[in-house]
Automatic annotation (TrEMBL):
Protein name: RING-type E3 ubiquitin transferase
Gene: Rfwd3_1
An example Gene Ontology molecular-function term: ligase activity
Entry coiled-coil feature ranges: none
Pfam families assigned: WD40_RFWD3 (PF23419)
Superkingdom classification of source: Eukaryota
């Protein structure tokens, strides 16, 4: 089992073995790596988002260099988040591909096959985007915005992905999204926290949103459908990353801070 880890200062992209805790492959990206993720439709591919807005596609079977580069159209902002949405039998949004978030907005790179991708710019608010996460089952994404002129608070906006068939056109449908719910947190946001959108452990079909709140040093949990704040999980320090997980049919939520990992059990 392999895990990815990026080193910002050295411009290196490394694969680590969780079994032996050793580096098994290293790539020199030439620029600092800000984000990374695996391809969930083909485990041979992995993506690295760079400081200049480009995304490098690596094939783990090729140890020399990247096999493809996805170049942002008109933006050189760092790619702060990468999430892969696998293909699914969904009438509303069956496509698989890569959702990339930058400080200026977001783009869905539809995977057309192999290493061929088609970009779809998502209609997000201009500026202030710090993170985009996706949920494969609901085909929704969670976009996080810093406090700014439009809102004094950190906002997590739940977006529904869909496709728009263009009339009188032979072109493939365009991929887009629209907001369906907004969640507000505190007025402080200096970090690029990775938030989470996931199915409720209650298995009742509902979705949960969890986001780090720097103002209260906590992780806030909302019901995605109603927008109701369910709980504030105290972390004592700003939360950097959030990961829901299931172990032996028991559900946990891990919150990473600068000094420790806090693990909360679902009851």
């Amino acid at each position: 089992m392999l895990a990815t880890h990026s080193f910002f200062c050295l411009s290196l992209f490394r694969f680590l073995s969780l079994l032996t805790n050793t580096v098994v492959q290293t790539y020199n990206t030439g620029r600092p790596v800000w984000s990374c993720c695996w391809c969930l439709d083909d485990p041979n591919y992995v993506y690295a988002g760079l400081s200049n807005g480009a995304i490098l596609v690596y094939d783990t079977r090729d140890t020399s260099t990247y096999v493809h580069e996805l170049t942002s159209l008109g933006s050189r902002c760092p790619v702060v988040s990468l999430s892969y949405l696998p293909r699914a039998a969904s009438a509303a949004f069956p496509y698989g591909g890569l959702i990339a978030g930058t400080l200026e907005g977001g783009c869905f790179w539809e995977m057309k096959g192999g290493i061929s991708y088609r970009p779809h710019h998502l209609p997000l608010e201009p500026g202030g985007c710090t993170d985009i996460q996706v949920d494969a089952s609901s085909r929704h994404c969670l976009v996080t915005y810093r406090p700014g002129k439009s809102s004094p608070n950190l906002r997590c906006v739940l977006m529904e992905l869909n496709r728009v068939v263009q009339q009188d056109s032979l072109d493939d449908p365009a991929c887009t999204c629209y907001p369906i719910q907004t969640f507000n947190a505190g007025s402080c946001c200096k970090l690029l926290t990775k938030n989470a959108l996931f199915e409720s452990p209650a298995k009742d079909g509902s979705m949960l949103v969890c986001a780090g709140d720097e103002a209260s040093n906590s992780a806030m949990v909302w019901d995605a459908g109603s927008g109701t704040l369910l709980q504030k999980l105290q972390a004592d320090q700003p939360v950097l990353d959030i990961c829901p997980m299931e172990i032996n049919q028991t559900h946990f939520l891990a919150a990473l801070t600068e000094k420790m990992v806090k693990v909360y059990k679902w009851e």
